[in-house]
């Protein structure tokens, strides 16, 4: 154990003694009460062809066309540098170039997308992204993509014509309030929400301090280029991670890694968010996806946050963090009359053998396929006929 770990442990122990609520949260998120993750038999899972040595943090499915979009990075830069850059300082002399893929679920075909109107020498370091479907342009999708440039993080807007293999750059959004974006949820061609996962970005020590003392410094920011406003809409979170919207953009969903919660907000006409429900997931939540057909919410979750932090420190050489996939649906059982509005079901769990450090689970209920990605584990896993997969817990 190195000195850093010793100090972190000391801080952690001191904290546990002082604050019971924090202690409880860490215990819950580390899986103390549920025990280690079970190994899955992986029966219906397989890797997508042609994605070796790519690591894909975020995946979104365009359900009408059955096309999935994958935001990936190359293995070399992910394993040699701390990633994503805002989590830690990085000092790199060559441009980072992530790559987008489109995956046709029915044809089982994966194709890289070519960037147009975007300089070759520009950084393109990917993390979360969101897709906006304009109701008046059935052929075009608008991609809002987090780009962690060495000069600071920005949101890039690209236009993509369905069934082509290009992303056309339109615009870059940069603002002081967008400093550590993790995930982005567009609600029009000009408006989006982002989560800032941490307050500190460029100092290893400050980042560690913020994480281990569990500062409530994470927030959600709304930007509109219609009115040229960028404003804080939710504050006081601990490591807000995935953000997404439902099919009609009326509700916003935010998962937190720091407290293991899923927040459901209603969007007000002025784009402020009103908290409707808090669902205690009891696992650190990474990306959040909503199936627009069923309204079901899929969460990629970390099984044990301490194992995950150790994995990060180890650069995942020997520690392969376990994970789960949790589905949230409307509660149809009798206890809904007692105010339990949502049903929470863990539909998959693995101890890190099949895949590890899962960051995203994108489900397509009509094609019965789910895709998984991770910024640290090679490749993307396709889980066919997800409805039949059940790993029972709790
Ligand atoms: C970044 O790299 C350069 C060149 O290798 C080096 O001179 C500089 O000290 C490094 N900065 C930090 C903060 O590590
Ligand atoms: C938009 O607002 C920012 C400050 O938030 C300002 O710097 C910028 O000049 C404004 N742009 C326009 C086009 O008004
Ligand atoms: C619950 O039902 C409502 C009304 O049908 C639907 O809009 C919503 O998406 C559903 N939510 C979930 C989590 O399934």
From TrEMBL:
<feature type="transmembrane region" description="Helical">
    <location>
        <begin position="7"/>
        <end position="23"/>
    </location>
</feature>
<comment type="similarity">
    <text>Belongs to the paraoxonase family.</text>
</comment>
<feature type="binding site">
    <location>
        <position position="286"/>
    </location>
    <ligand>
        <name>Ca(2+)</name>
    </ligand>
</feature>
<keyword id="KW-0812">Transmembrane</keyword>
<feature type="active site" description="Proton acceptor">
    <location>
        <position position="127"/>
    </location>
</feature>
<keyword id="KW-1015">Disulfide bond</keyword>
<feature type="binding site">
    <location>
        <position position="241"/>
    </location>
    <ligand>
        <name>Ca(2+)</name>
    </ligand>
</feature>
<dbReference type="InterPro" id="IPR011042">
    <property type="entry name" value="6-blade_b-propeller_TolB-like"/>
</dbReference>
<feature type="binding site">
    <location>
        <position position="287"/>
    </location>
    <ligand>
        <name>Ca(2+)</name>
    </ligand>
</feature>
<dbReference type="Pfam" id="PF01731">
    <property type="entry name" value="Arylesterase"/>
</dbReference>
<keyword id="KW-0325">Glycoprotein</keyword>
<keyword id="KW-0106">Calcium</keyword>
<dbReference type="InterPro" id="IPR051288">
    <property type="entry name" value="Serum_paraoxonase/arylesterase"/>
</dbReference>
<keyword id="KW-0479">Metal-binding</keyword>
<feature type="binding site">
    <location>
        <position position="58"/>
    </location>
    <ligand>
        <name>Ca(2+)</name>
    </ligand>
</feature>
<keyword id="KW-1133">Transmembrane helix</keyword>
<keyword id="KW-0378">Hydrolase</keyword>
<keyword id="KW-0472">Membrane</keyword>
<dbReference type="GO" id="GO:0046872">
    <property type="term" value="F:metal ion binding"/>
</dbReference>
<dbReference type="GO" id="GO:0004064">
    <property type="term" value="F:arylesterase activity"/>
</dbReference>
<dbReference type="InterPro" id="IPR002640">
    <property type="entry name" value="Arylesterase"/>
</dbReference>
<protein>
    <recommendedName>
        <fullName>Arylesterase</fullName>
    </recommendedName>
</protein>
<feature type="binding site">
    <location>
        <position position="182"/>
    </location>
    <ligand>
        <name>Ca(2+)</name>
    </ligand>
</feature>
């Amino acid at each position: 154990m190195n000195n850093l770990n010793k100090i972190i442990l000391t801080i952690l122990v001191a904290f546990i003694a002082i604050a019971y609520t924090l202690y409880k949260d860490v215990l819950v998120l580390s899986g103390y009460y549920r025990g280690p993750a079970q190994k899955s038999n992986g029966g219906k899972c397989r890797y997508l062809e042609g994605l070796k040595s790519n690591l894909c943090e975020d995946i979104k499915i365009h359900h009408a066309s059955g096309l999935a979009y994958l935001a990936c990075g190359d293995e070399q830069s992910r394993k040699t540098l701390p990633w994503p850059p805002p989590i830690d300082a990085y000092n790199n002399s060559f441009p980072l170039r992530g790559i987008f893929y489109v995956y046709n679920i029915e044809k089982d075909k994966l194709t890289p997308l070519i960037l147009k109107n975007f300089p070759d020498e520009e950084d393109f370091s990917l993390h979360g992204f969101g897709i906006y479907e304009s109701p008046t342009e059935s052929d075009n999708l608008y991609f809002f993509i987090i780009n962690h440039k060495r000069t600071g993080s920005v949101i890039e807007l690209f236009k993509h014509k369905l069934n082509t293999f290009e992303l056309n750059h339109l615009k870059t959004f940069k603002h002081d309030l967008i400093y550590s974006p993790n995930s982005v949820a567009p609600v029009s061609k000009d408006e989006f929400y982002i989560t800032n996962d941490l307050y500190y970005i460029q100092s290893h020590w400050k980042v560690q301090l913020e994480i281990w003392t569990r500062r409530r410094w994470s927030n959600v920011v709304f930007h509109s280029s219609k009115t040229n406003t960028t404003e804080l809409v939710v504050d006081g979170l601990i490591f807000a991670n995935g953000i997404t919207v439902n099919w009609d953009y009326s509700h916003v969903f935010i998962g937190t890694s720091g407290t293991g919660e899923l927040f459901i907000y209603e969007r007000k006409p002025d784009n402020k968010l009103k908290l409707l429900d808090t669902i205690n997931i009891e696992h650190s939540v990474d990306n959040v996806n909503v199936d627009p057909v069923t309204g079901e919410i899929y969460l990629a979750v970390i099984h044990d946050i301490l194992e995950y932090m150790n994995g990060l420190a180890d650069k995942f050489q020997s520690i392969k963090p376990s994970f789960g996939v949790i589905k949230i649906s409307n509660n149809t059982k009798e206890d809904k009359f007692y105010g339990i509005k949502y049903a929470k079901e863990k539909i998959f769990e693995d101890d890190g053998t099949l895949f590890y450090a899962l960051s995203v689970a994108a489900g397509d209920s009509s094609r019965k396929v789910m895709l998984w990605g991770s910024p640290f584990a090679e490749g993307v896993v396709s889980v066919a006929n997800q409805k039949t997969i059940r790993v029972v817990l709790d």
